[in-house]
Amino acid sequence: KTIYVLNGPNLNLLGTREPETYGSDTLATIEELCRTTAAQLDVAIEFRQTNHEGEMIDWIQQSRLDGHALVINPAAWTHTSVAIRDAVTAVALPLYEVHITNVHKREPFRHHSFLSDVAKGVICGYGIRGYQYALMEAAR
Ligand code: DQA
């Protein structure tokens, strides 16, 4: 069984993207943190990022085959995508929603999430450590 760690649009630019908001860590650093954490927890992970909504939906659907849980930072799709929400509810795996920033102290359009009410848990505002905390819960 595998924990899918899926990242949405523009997260490939972490490190250079608005560093005052998102910090200087890159997606590669997040992947490293997730791999180290997964090894400590003795779980397998699939770590991926895409800028294409349909690809994200395909991955969520595929997780039905061997997935144990989903850890997703849906990035901007958090606030826009009924399709990603529907994919998550279709696969019926526990979802842990992660945001690097505290979306609630940002623009009002970031306060609503199409995923939070179908998530097992939501972590935001703890930087990249949020991924680590989500993995710890997802591995239980
Ligand atoms: C984000 C928050 C979203 O509002 C934003 O669109 C992102 C990243 C975060 O990790 O803080 O791209 O999900």
Automatic annotation (TrEMBL):
One of its GO terms (molecular function) is 3-dehydroquinate dehydratase activity. Pfam families: DHquinase_II. Pathway: Metabolic intermediate biosynthesis; chorismate biosynthesis; chorismate from D-erythrose 4-phosphate and phosphoenolpyruvate: step 3/7. The active site is at Y22, H99. One of its GO terms (biological process) is chorismate biosynthetic process. Its EC number is 4.2.1.10. It is an enzyme of class 4 (lyase). It catalyses: 3-dehydroquinate = 3-dehydroshikimate + H2O. SUPFAM superfamilies: Type II 3-dehydroquinate dehydratase. The record marks R17 as: Transition state stabilizer. Substrate binds at N73, H79, D86, I100, T101, R110. It comes from the Bacteria. Homododecamer. Belongs to the type-II 3-dehydroquinase family. Catalyzes a trans-dehydration via an enolate intermediate. PANTHER family: CATABOLIC 3-DEHYDROQUINASE. This is 3-dehydroquinate dehydratase. It comes from Winslowiella iniecta.
